[in-house]
Amino acid sequence: MKLKLFWLFLFSALLPLIWFSYQNQWFDSYTENGNSISFSCTKQCVLILWEKSNNDIIKISGLLGNGDVIAGVMWANQFYPITNQKAANSLQFFISSLNGQAIPNNAPVALVFQWSVSSASASILFSQSNLIDNIEQIRKDFWSNEPMTFYSINLRYGTKILGTPLIQIGYRLFFLGLIILYIKNKLNTKTISYLAIGIFLVIALKNLITNISITSQWLEEYTFASPGSKTYMNLGDYYEFMAQARKSMKIDDQRMHSCKVYLECGQEWPYCVHADYIFTKPCESTKDITKADYALFYQKAPAQTAGMKTILEKNGSFVLAK
Amino acid sequence: MFESSFLLLLKAIIINILVPLLPGILFLRFFFGTKLQSWFLYILAWFFGIAVVSQWMFNLQFIHFGIWITEYFALLVLLALARGVKLKVAKADVYDYVQTLKLRLDGSLKESFAGLSVIEKRLTGIGLLFVWLFVINSFVQVSNFPSYGDDTFWNRHRPAINMYYDGGAKVLGKLDEILWRWRVGYPINIASHKTLAAQFMWGWYENYVNLFQWFCFLGILLFGFFATFQKTKNIFYSTIPLVLMCGLPLVFFHVIDWYVDLVVMTYAVIAIYRMSQYLDHKDNDAFLLWLLAIIFATSVKNEGLVVYGAGLVISMGIYLLVRSELKSFFMGLWNKKIIRGSLAILVFFFLPFMIIRFIYWLELDPTPGAEGAGTVIKLHSEVFNIYKPIFFGQDNYNVIVLIIWIILYQIILKFTNSKPKTQDRPSKSISLTIILLLVLFTIASLVFLYTENYQWALSQTTINRLFTMIFFTYLFFYGIELYELHNNTWSLTQSTTPKAWWQNKR
């Protein structure tokens, strides 16, 4: 009986790999229904589709959530992102080239979903582009905004126009400009400088628009959001919870007093780490709940209470006090 | 901690400006008299004031435990008394003294703009609009959201908040009890300033605690504009460095949170500016200001000493060797003012923390996960593969290669000119900044190529921001360089026309 159960369990675990047309990884849930898929992704999930062939447009419809969707290709077992957008009901990705180079037709196309993206019935279609599609895509690409992530301080991919980085277009325009200036007999130190600075300024203005859009988005989601619905970056309600936790613990009044706090989080970093470093000061953290004055559980139900009572509960996070 | 309001913001702005500015002005006036005036006085006073107050607080802990408002006002009173006594002894005219505090500009911005060509007017107008929007957007960012970056929490805010709640920093004791009880090998200037700002705010306010970085950035923009305008009297060339510095894509993220590389670079830029003044005019005060700026850079981040301090010294060495001025340079330093001043600076600003480092054997930068980083010398040629994508495939530096190439190409053309004239030499500030750019870039590349730090290059967690800051330093002087290039006035900043270096060998 136990052996039968084992084989049944193993077969069930392997079934998705045999049954599904696409390879999928790390989804919270995933099913395929004919030409549509339903799924839920809360962290980072990968969906490997078909080979690119002559197609260069992916149309996806039916997505929900506020996470990111990144379209790219698999090359030598590595994912190369081409373009990304926020999840929405209807998305179109242009995947003709990668960093200015044409993508081979036999390269598998892949989608990466980040943070909160789900769908009850999403459809994914491949097609070839025409001139109108290209012009429309150029317009969309130029005005698209790269989101800010935890690695933005170290790396920015930048805007890509039909898969070609705007930076490369800038360099090509510079050399084109040099040729035009030479033909017009206006090539000198000053005109070369003005040309380079002008191109630099255009790209800088584009980046400024991106940064302003990031600021406005966060103002909407955090500063001007109503209490109870504030979110910031990819940390959800973390800051709002910490603000309420401090109020309920009354530790802002305890500047000269010491206190101890026990911390447990659904994910240690960054939540409990930052809470330990700053957000629960002046309390010092302790690993022993019995010695703590307060216990804080973020995105986690209290597994142990040591006789403390709940003074705050918010969206599955708790603060307990002696 | 997460409260915000317009009044709190106003309070935070006033505190972040005045707390360093007042002692900074008194400090500079006491030691350098009325040499620094107008915009340069205020900007330099603000930057130096942060370090002066932080170092005062730290040194005080050797004899008195306490980092609080009282200790700050004690410094203010001490500096004011010292300055008052010096004025009285010198029988200085207060009216003249006050005149030097007025904000003035040597030249007219309006007239300068009117004299530009059409394309220069357009580039200036759009450029200034771009800078203005950048400054406003970054201000809105830095004054509305709490901290996010790991490094912010890890390196600066935890030490700062520890000192805030402890009320001071113990100098002697067990390793887990001394100083700011966290990352004790990390320099303390920024954390100390944030502690004091929180004291004046009467609370730690997450939304305003990063304002300091924004003010550093604003300060260096203003410094860049006025320094360039003073030399060129041209608003177009004065706008260019601002556009270029703001236009480096990663700069925005350095202004609002995360790392303090930008703060280190502001002190490095001040150091270069002062050194070029010393080389031009042999002004002893300029040398002492250079020394102060270098030491303050090391008090912000360890890279200030290891990378930028070493880079500056090596660049100066190369510059002096090429110009055969090494001997005369050191002979020029052999005077009472420089010797006494340098010793005083080293004893007050450099030695105390070094003593603590020595007593407790504190590592320079114990970054977790980097054990052994830098200790094994081996070529990691795979790092070469990262250069093309980071410069030409991603938007980490805008089209910086073009911007730098224009200047370098013209300099190479000039030097390969068949009939070099004595006037055909870059000015000292241009020479120094270009040598510095090449030296820093080479040092950084060698570190990534030959040590275990190659992993930070391949993962792009360090290489882009390090190069960004190197370019940022260089771009500060770009307006002056471009002006000299366009107007063929290489010797603009030199008071005498020296012999060309190749002529010394004949």
Helix/strand/pairing category of chain B = mainly alpha
Low-confidence stretches of chain B: 366-374, 490-506
Shape of chain A: globular
What percentage of residues of chain B falls in helices of 4 or more residues? 55-70%
- Mean pLDDT of chain B, nearest integer? 84
Cα gyration radius of chain A (Å)? 26 Å
The dominant shape of chain B is globular
Helix and strand pattern of chain B: HHHHHHHHHHHHHHHHHHHHHHH
Query: Which whole number gives the mean pLDDT of chain A?
Result: 84
The span between the termini of chain B is: 69 Å
How many DSSP helices of chain A? 6
Biggest beta-sheet profile of chain B? none
Number of DSSP E strands of chain B? 0
The span between the termini of chain A is: 50 Å
How does the SSE layout of this entry go?
The complex is a heterodimer of chains A (322) and B (506).
Chain A: H1 2-19, E1 23-25, E2 29-33, E3 36-41, E4 44-51, E5 57-61, E6 68-75, E7 78-86, E8 90-94, E9 97-98, E10 101-102, E11 108-114, E12 117-127, H2 131-143, E13 160-161, E14 164-165, H3 166-183, H4 189-223, H5 238-249, E15 260-265, H6 268-279, E16 284-286, E17 294-298, E18 309-314, E19 317-321
Parallel strand pairs in A: 15-16, 15-17
Antiparallel strand pairs in A: 1-4, 2-3, 3-12, 4-11, 5-8, 5-12, 6-7, 6-11, 9-10, 13-14, 17-19, 18-19
Helix pairs in contact in A: 3-4
Chain B: H1 6-32, H2 38-60, H3 69-90, H4 94-99, H5 109-114, H6 118-142, H7 150-166, H8 189-201, H9 211-232, H10 235-247, H11 251-256, H12 261-281, H13 284-298, H14 303-322, H15 326-333, H16 336-360, H17 384-393, H18 400-415, H19 428-450, H20 454-458, H21 463-475, H22 478-487, H23 501-504
Helix pairs in contact in B: 1-2, 1-3, 1-8, 2-8, 2-9, 2-16, 6-10, 7-8, 9-10, 9-12, 10-22, 12-13, 12-14, 12-19, 12-21, 13-14, 13-16, 14-19, 19-21
